[in-house]
UniProtKB/TrEMBL annotation:
It holds the Pfam family Glyco_hydro_88. The lineage of its organism: Bacteria, Bacillati, Bacillota, Bacilli, Bacillales. Keywords: Hydrolase, Membrane, Transmembrane, Transmembrane helix. The keyword Membrane applies. This is Glycosyl hydrolase.
Amino acid sequence: MIIQILGVIVLLIIIIIILIDIVPIGQDWLSRIHIGRYEDKQLWSKSITKVGLKWLNTTPKIKVTDHTRLVVIDMLKGNYTRSAIQHWQEASLLLGLSEYLQNHHDLEVERELKRYLDMKFDRQGQWRQMPTHVDTAILAYALMKVDFIETDDYKLALDTTWAMIREHIGHDGTVAYRKFMKGYRYVDTIGFICPFLVAYGIRYELEECVELALKQIKAYEERGMLEGHHIPSHAYEVDDKLPLGLFGWGRGLGWYAIGLIDAWNELPSDHAYKAILEESVKRFAKAAIAFQQANGNWNWTVTRGECRPDSSTTATLGWFMLNASKIEEIADMCLDSANQASNYLMKVTRRNGAVDFSQGDTKDIGVYSMLFNILPFTQGFCIRMMNFNHGFKVVKR
């Protein structure tokens, strides 16, 4: 009798393990039936925003590994997801929904944003879980973009974020991705910290923050760009100035793009660094457009037409292009590029409004995910792009 019971328990465990593997695969297959049927951008914008709002407080967990078999082992080892990954997913949704509120008076969205903030910050405006990685800075920046709250109520959290960034400054005066990796500079870090540094520095009159953001961007342009093409490597080694990882990793272009364009946006028009960053925006816009595919997308390796398209790259570069179109010299080419990007993203949106086929989380320098699925980060930047005031209404069709 005991043997029979044990046999049933073992069988149930095996069935559960198999279901953990099979159910997500089946759900993806079903969700992709009739994918890409959106033709009206207003309807598409409404659908992606609805999904983004749903995900803000129940953000899908993003896998650290690419394993699709025996996933339960990763769960038990704690390798399924990590909080640092979740921070930039949530930040993107917060940025997108905040942009949506610029054009819509929506009490439901305001209520969900407030609920999210109450989960992340205490009544004194401090982080409930103190940040340890620079990834958190993009979430602090997203907090500053929520217009219906008083930013100063969260100054403790913002000050803590600035203090945490300072702890990551290396001997070259720029910010490391992790404290234990101070010899490397990642392109991701530009997207994580530079918009926050400029917004925080301007608001609280701390010029050293703005100077650090500029230094981070200019150092990468000097040491981490492919000569003749101006696209970033994944990282570079500080002392030897050696590029590391792939030149042309799509989301790496995206991280550089959002760090640069949001930092430029946050600077007042009369600031001394505005014109300096504007030149960087123009140079990168021309470089990135050269690698945009005929369908409007960028591939996960932008330099290879044979690679898979990546929605996260396309969404972030679409946001960059739309903002860069404010510069008269490159306005037409950037608006056209952004319009093509949004057209592509509509074609890879599931019928429920979730944008599909984004590359999964990167494992290490030069070690890239081969899973392409939904990603809250992509969803947020699609929402942000479609609700930007300088948007597609001026594009000739």
